[in-house]
Amino acid sequence: MLIFGISLVDPVAMELGVTFNNIHVESVRNPIIIDQYYCMTKDCSNKTSAVFVSDIAYQGIKGTYDIRSPPMHFGCSDAVPCTNLTLSGIELLPAKGDIVVDPFCWNAYGLAEELSIPPVWCLMSDPPTALQGALVDKCGSP
Length: 142
Hints:
It is found in: Secreted, Cell wall. This protein is mainly β. The chain contains one helix and ten strands; from the N terminus they run ββββββββββα. The protein has one domain (2-139). The strands form two sheets. Strands 2-1-4-6-9 form a five-stranded mixed β-sheet, with no helix packed on it.
């Protein structure tokens, strides 16, 4: 799994309470990313990580991105979704070309605390109560 350039490979790990704060990027692809389907080689089968990802905050992320990839990518597991993602103070502009206004979100729950550039409209609000109980049963209480 990949979170903002950090690869997590432990299949039963928990990633809780991480904050990315005051980061400046220049001409990067996917400056904000969580990818539970990440694979470092081309011959990987598409397996979903069982890493429990919650309480991840992106604050004050500014700079430019390469328009070949969306500036925000949240690819979370069907079995173990990402929860309580928080974005604030996001100002990402294209290095060249038009702004990409299509962030990628899959099974990602959270909120943008304030208007971001580009806007993040795809995060879902609170996960269903049944899902929260299942996550606690599967991963333990944080």
